[in-house]
Structures are given as structure tokens and as C-alpha cells.
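Input sequence (203 aa), recorded before submission:
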Amino acid sequence: AWRQLGTGIGGGTLTDVVVPPALRNVTARAPLAATLNAEVAQKSTILVDLRYAADGIAADVEEIRQALAAKRRWVRLTDGSVAELSQRVAALVSATHDTLGSAPAAELPRHVLGEVASWSELADHVELDDRLAGWTHRLRELSASATPEDVPGLVGDLRSYQKIGVAWLQFLSELGAGGILADDMGLGKTIQTLAVLEWRRAR
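Predicted structure, C-alpha cell format:
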């Protein structure tokens, strides 16, 4: 809290900071940061490890959520010190709530790749293994400009929107995940499906 003491030299106002007794011996650390490590397991699941810390001192996820719920800017760390919450950390804690809960680590199915990719954009420090990094890069490319791999045995031409569908199905095939091609009637689901089947046969 701020306390006004009076008028100083030149008409300026002198102020003092009054700190509550409970906070006088509390150490304030650097802003809280998130570290995300993720890799593809042998059975093609995704191993995720997400930790929050400041100056090497960990923060409990539930403690962060309680601070956010109370609209506090500071969170108490495991050693009793405090660290300031950033908007990135707040967004990441919210984004991972349903999938990770309060667990710092989890083994997740491949269909959550999109979530892991979005988490990697929010975390302050990110380390992905080569396979997972390739998947997330491909996913971003599909979002921006989808170009399918060549299908040598396909007789016919794909329209631009059909190429997007084929590229997406090729990516799902490489990921080992299933998907639903849900174009409207008459937009060429058959040729897209045939293109993917021919592409898989040629491989």
C-alpha cells in the first residue's frame, strides 16, 4: 500500500511503501516461466512434461490456478518465495487444464498433436524430439498452405480444395491417426479417397 507523507522540496509529494508484515521476508523471484519437453514414444503416443518455475524454483499448477482464479499477479512457489505471473503462463495453464489436469507429465494419444503444438507456442522454453518437431511443422504448413505429395497412379486432376483434403489425409496417415473427410456432397470425396489409397499403395 502507498502512504502519502506530505509535500517535499519543490512542491513534490513524498510517498512511502507500507509492506504488510507477512510479506516483509518473502523473496520475489524472476517472472514465472514454462518449460515444455515432449517426444514421441515407441508406440507413437506423445510423452509430455510441462513444468513451471522461477529462478529454478518450481511452482505447483494448482497454486497457479488458485492465483489466477483470485486474479492475483503473484504466485507462491514451493520454497515460499513468489513470482509474477505472465499472460503466456496464464494462457498455457488454461489451455492444458482439460488434457493434463494438475499432472506435470502425461502420455497422450496422437490425436492431441494440435494441442501440443499450440502449447509449444505458449511455453517459454520448448524441446521437442525430431519426430514430434516434424509433425508440428507439418501441421503448421497444412494450416497455411496444404500441398499434397504426388500421387503417380492417379488418373484425374484434383481441384485446389481437393488437394487440401488429400494433403490432410496424407498427414493423418503418416501420423497413424484416423480422420473423417466431411466435404459436402458433390465436392469430390471419392477422388480424394482414391488419391490417398493410391498414394498409400505406391509407398
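Checked by second reader. The CA atoms of residues 62 and 102 lie 6 Å apart.
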